[in-house]
Amino acid sequence: MDAAHFRHVVGHLASGVTVITTETGDRRHGMTASSVTSLSADPPMMLACINNAVPTAAAVADSGRYAVNVLGDGQGELARQFATASDDKFRGVAVHPGKLGLPLLTDALAHLECEVVEQVTGGTHTIFLGRVVTATATAGDGQPLTYFRGGFGRFAFAKDDEVYGRARELVLSRAYPADQALPLEDLATRLGVDQAAAFYALTRLSSDGLVRRDADRGYVVAPLDVRTSDETFDARLAVELGVLSLSLDRVTDDEVTELRRRFDAMAALLVGERFVDFHGYLDANYAMHEYLVSLAGNPLLTSTFGRLGIKNVMTRSFGVTPETSQKFVEAQRHLVDGVAHRDAESARRGAIEYCELAKERVREILVATGGTL
Q1: Is residue 191 within 8 Å of residue 166, measured between CB atoms?
Q2: Shared domain check, 7 and 138
Q3: 318 CA to centre of own chain
Q4: Contact by Cβ (8 Å): 294, 302
Q5: Which of 174, 243, 281, 315 has a CA-to-CA distance to 260 between 20 and 30 Å?
Q6: Are residues 186 and 205 in the same domain?
Q7: Side by side, which strands form the sheet with 15-16?
């Protein structure tokens, strides 16, 4: 098989784009890589293929560690920078240290830090099998950068995202009442799109928890009641109280600084008694609490937090009205201040206060909207 012909054909396989980073001594190494994939969920493992001619291959073998930085669709130039030979590939790039001390690209969509457990030679490359030690993803709806036929680009999600957004607004505005069937044909007609686009929107609404699949009626608008709300917020509180108990005495000053930064980003989106940008607030709120949970350094706790559906409950309740209260910000400020001062009791009181305020606000909204959402 001619190598040039092989590269042309295999270039039709679209792949995500990452930057592999590591550190040996006081020297940082990094390279753009598309031959990276998840290998196993239990235990969590990643696979990275690196050309042996690139210095990063020897550096990963020497250090026994590497980080996978997943790039977003606006980071094509960053991918090119790390794909080009240079004495300092990190010039002008925001970087912060990970749990393993590896250089992580701050603006990447996601980070995974791995310890090499095995390496295999395949042709001109070395395949590094890495056990994932930490994994984090940014809040928000960033899209991945992709590599296809020799160029960087993005998936064509824009139209589908717009249709999904309009469908979500229909559900949140109660154009379809709680526990009512949401026929595919009717949704497509209301949105003015084909049924394929409407079906995509339904599948995302189902993932959001806004609709559920009924064996007899098809997709049905999922009702939100007090019990669902209380259980979700109580579960979040239980996780966060556990984190405070486990980790407060070993939180670093840098971690406190990052927690405050995320708090400030969230607080800026609530002015007076109104949301400036509800969805922006929701993403920032989630990012702050997710980071708080990550301070325990316990992947199981972080995974449990991610499965609670906090954003779904807040979207379906708090998102009904632009009105809110500064009490929510103040309660979370007490929580953050407690962490900053390593004052466990103060932090616990802030977490409990915030939980009780959230549950009470959902009750108020449910009364105003007739009992269900």
Answers
A1: yes
A2: yes
A3: 21
A4: yes
A5: 315
A6: yes
A7: 15-16, 145-148, 151-154
- The DSSP result for 250-278, as a single string, is G--HHHHHHHHHHHHHHHTTEETTEESSH
> How far apart (Å, rounded) are the C-alpha atoms in residues 18 and 10?
18
DSSP string, 224-259: --HHHHHHHHHHHHHHHHHHHHHHGGG--HHHHHHH
Nearby residues of 180 by Cβ (< 8 Å), 6 or more positions away: 220, 221
| Rg of the chain on CA atoms, in Å | 23
Query: Can you tell me the distance from the alpha carbon of 351 to that of 303, in angstroms, rounded to the nearest whole number?
Result: 19
Residue 373, in any domain of the structure: no
List, as one string, the DSSP characters of 298-349. Answer: -HHHHHHHHTS-HHHHHHHHGGG-SB--HHHHHHHHHHHHHHHTT-HHHHHH
pLDDT in tens, 95-121: 999 999 999 999 999 999 999 999 999
d(CA 317, CA 360): 11
Q: What's the number of domains the chain is made of?
A: 3
Residue that has been written with the tokens 């590896």 in this structure: 102
Residue 136 lies in a domain: yes
Angstrom CA distances, 13 to 34, 38, 73, 287, stand at 11, 17, 17, 33
141: buried, middle or exposed (CB in 10 Å: 19+, 13-18, 0-12)?
Answer: exposed
- Which amino acid is present at 164? Y
The amino acid occupying position 96 is H
- Give the structural domain span for 351: 226-368
Residue among 76, 79, 72, 68 at smallest CA distance from 36: 68
CATH number at residue 141: 2.30.110.10
> CA 367 to CA 373: how far, in whole Å?
10
Provide the whole-model pTM. Answer: 0.54
pLDDT tens sequence across 37-70: 989 888 999 999 999 999 999 999 999 999 999 9
233, 313 Cβ separation under 8 angstroms? yes
Q: What is the CATH number of the domain that holds 185?
A: 1.10.10.10
Q: Helix/strand/coil (H, E, C) string of 124-178? A: CEEEEEEEEEEEEECCCCCCEEEEECCEEEECCCHHHHHHHHHHHHHHHCCCCCC
Query: Which of 81-90, 148-157, 162-171 has maximum average pLDDT?
Result: 81-90
* Residue 308 falls inside a structural domain: yes
On whether residue 72 sits in a domain, the answer given is yes
Q: Kindly state whether residues 114 and 165 are assigned to the same domain.
A: no
